[in-house]
Design goal:
The chain is of the alpha+beta class. It is built from 7 helices and 5 strands.
Length: about 200
């Protein structure tokens, strides 16, 4: 492994920055596509004499499908292999399996090349660990929903609930809560009850 490690270190010095070039609207995050990861890693690895071998296999004992990636130093024969299971709801569905394979390949290439996106949104919540869990902006906004609906209407955005807010409004939930509360306090009609 000594020669592979030296070649991998040399390759990593040549690799450019990995850019998050795609958006995941479901999780409101950015990520680097498989094409982008390969674009950044493949040529420096090849220049350092490292061949990347990929395969998909079924483990007979568990009937699980896995994706494999092997880095092989051509000159010395040193190699290192990584494996990750392909997880999807319906493994018999070719589209779901292909999607799981693409995701697994992206993870394997990124880890093997030692890459990290310049702006790591996609893995942000995982990297923060238990000490600082990521909070769902909608969960933060839900207790203030009535005030936020009224505030949004004052800005020309008509919504039935916080789940309908535009994505840009969810970028700073604390600021939105403060603005909505200020709007509500200034525009609430108060009735005095005579005793």
């Amino acid at each position: 492994m000594k020669e592979l490690a030296k070649a991998l270190l040399a390759a990593r010095k040549e690799m450019g920055k990995l850019i998050n070039n795609a958006k995941n609207p479901h999780y409101r995050s950015n990520y680097a596509t498989l094409d982008e990861v390969i674009r950044v890693a493949q040529e420096p690895l090849a220049n350092a004499g490292i061949c990347v071998l990929e395969s998909t296999a079924v483990i007979s004992e568990s009937n699980a499908t896995v994706q494999k990636l092997e880095l092989r130093h051509v000159e010395s024969g040193d190699s290192y292999q990584s494996t990750i299971p392909l997880i999807c709801k319906d493994p018999s569905n070719p589209q779901q399996l292909k999607s799981a394979q693409t995701y697994a390949r992206r993870m394997l290439w990124t880890a093997a090349a030692g890459l990290a996106p310049v702006d790591d949104d996609d893995g942000n919540s995982a990297s923060q660990g238990a000490s600082k869990p990521a909070q769902d902006p909608l969960a933060l906004l839900k207790p203030h929903e009535t005030a936020i609906i009224a505030f949004a209407a004052s800005k020309g955005t008509i919504i039935a609930g916080v789940h309908e807010l535009p994505a840009k409004w969810l970028q700073s939930p604390q600021k939105l809560i403060a603005a909505a509360q200020e709007y509500a306090s200034q525009n609430t009609v108060k009735k005095e009850v005579k005793k």
